[in-house]
Design goal:
This protein has 173 residues and is of the alpha+beta class. It is built from five helices and eight strands. The chain starts with a strand and ends in a 9-residue tail after the last strand.
Length: 173
């Protein structure tokens, strides 16, 4: 599977992506906001690529060069017709709109492919860049969930963001 919008593409990860994943995940901002381990090793990257399984994860790449820009994925809860999304971008790819484009592209595809009624993601209140990504992709903030997730041994508050299937027609393209 490959999804494209002209500037970016989403494709499955391969073993060839391991060095670029390792390099990207050395940026302390990625493990700061995610469950990505720190320090991040080639073994971590190989386990990530090999263990994707039911979690649907895709490389965000430059559509013309195939350079790895980031990662995006989701877990489907079929019994509830919803999915939860997550993403990260390497430092040099941030601020160009690529992550919002990837989130829009994958949201539209996933909603149709899996018959999803609700797409959601959680963002820590201090992660303003991720908040911008979610909002630019059409996700709406629904509220603050206190002590909702644990990352690296610490409970954290998060904002819940959602995009409903019927909102996709109104979401930016």
């Amino acid at each position: 599977m490959r999804l494209e919008d002209g500037d970016i593409a989403l494709r499955p990860f391969t073993e060839a992506d391991v060095p670029a994943i390792v390099e990207a995940c050395q940026d302390p901002e990625i493990p700061r906001w995610t469950r990505v381990p720190s320090p991040y090793t080639a073994d971590d990257a190989r386990a990530f690529v090999a263990g994707i399984g039911e979690h649907r994860a895709f490389a965000i790449v430059d559509a013309s060069t195939d350079e790895l820009l980031g990662a995006i994925g989701f877990d489907v809860h079929r019994d509830e017709a919803r999915a939860e999304f997550g993403y990260w971008m390497k430092r040099s790819a941030r601020g160009r709109g690529a992550c919002s484009s990837a989130l829009r592209l994958l949201s539209r595809w996933a909603a149709g492919e899996y018959g999803l009624a609700r797409l959601q993601l959680v963002v820590q209140p201090e992660n303003t860049a991720s908040i911008r990504v979610a909002e630019k992709a059409g996700f709406r903030r629904e509220g603050l969930l206190r002590s909702y997730i644990e990352i690296k041994g610490r409970r954290r508050d998060v904002y819940m963001y959602a995009l409903l299937a019927e909102d996709l027609d109104e979401a930016p393209k």
